[in-house]
Amino acid sequence: MKLGAREVIGVDNDLSPAAVEFLIPYFKSPVRMHEMNLYDLTPETFGKFDVVVCSGVLYHLRYPMQAIKALRDLLPTGGHLVLETAIFAGENEHALLYCPIGAESPYEPSSCTFFNLKGLADSLFSLGLLPKRARCKNNTPPSATFAPNKAIDRTVFTCQYVPETIDRIVDRYWHATHKTHLKEADFYEGGEWPTKPSELVKLAIEDAVRASEANRPARPTMQGLEEALRRSEEGLRQAEAVCAERLDVIHRLDEALRRSEAESAERLDVIGRLDEALRQSEAECAAQRGSIEALTRAARDPVRASARLVKWLASRSSRPKQGAA
């Protein structure tokens, strides 16, 4: 929207709750998300778009050409498709499609479609999508042996829809009815079968290959390997020193923890003794409280107190005096 788009629509066959329930509301984005299959997209669904972005999808699809055609049909003349996908970084002399299944996939079982660079460029061009630029992520050099798990790269193609580049005869053969049984001159309007893609496709492929060559790591020399080994050994020594320091810290922390546990045990013993003394004090207080309550009750009853006093005086007077015969 910041770039002037009137409308942005996202489509996925498994909508992300994080995007729908958090990100879009949080950023107050006008993006509208729809859960549907890419193959079901038609111009009648949402209309046509100036730019279509398809990222990380094509290599998951069992019918890649059907998907590319569906995306192309959403573009007006001059519209752009930005296509990001995983590719087989093998040789680019021939247009290839590597289509593994199950455990043979370099990613996981749903990843089953890996064009090489030329194969993807030619396929796009055959549908009127003129590659303007191709960039690879890792610039993985072609492998001398077929090792798919080690020869997968990522690429981004920026294409423009130019219907004039489509071979109408071949396109009719692929997508409509045709008259292949007529004379060749009648079937092929120009009398020739166009076999070579546009020079612009070649340029896009060559541009990507040049970028791959320019970014390819230099062949290691013995001196370079020795230097790398020396740096690795130095890094290993530094890592060992750091580990020794950390182990020393751990030992000190462990010793401090043991001392803290011993101090805690002593404190718990003191608390236990204090608790016992407190219970004894509470018992003595309870006994004293009982005596006080008894005296209080006696003081409140003068008749009983007087009777006890008379009885006590009588007991004193009846005692024999000391020294009497």
Portion in strands: 5-15%
What spatial form do the alpha-carbon principal axes imply? elongated
Q: What is the helix tally? A: 9
Poorly predicted ranges: 142-146, 183-187, 189-195
Mean pLDDT: 80
User: Strand order within the widest sheet?
Assistant: 3-4-8-7
End-to-end Cα distance: 133 Å
* Rounded Rg: 46 Å
Outline the biggest β-sheet.
4 strands, mixed
Give a quick precis of the structure:
48% of the residues lie in helices and 14% in strands. It has a 4-stranded mixed β-sheet with strand order 3-4-8-7.
Supply database-style keywords.
14% strand; single chain; alpha/beta; two-stranded parallel sheet; 325 residues; 48% helix
What does this structure look like?
With 325 residues, the protein is α/β, with parallel strands linked by helices. The chain is 48% helix and 14% strand. The chain has nine helices and eight strands. The strands form three sheets. The chain has a four-stranded mixed beta sheet with strand order 3-4-8-7. Strands 1-2 form a two-stranded parallel sheet. It has a two-stranded antiparallel ribbon with strand order 5-6. The radius of gyration is 46 Å and the shape is elongated. About 5% of the residues have low confidence.
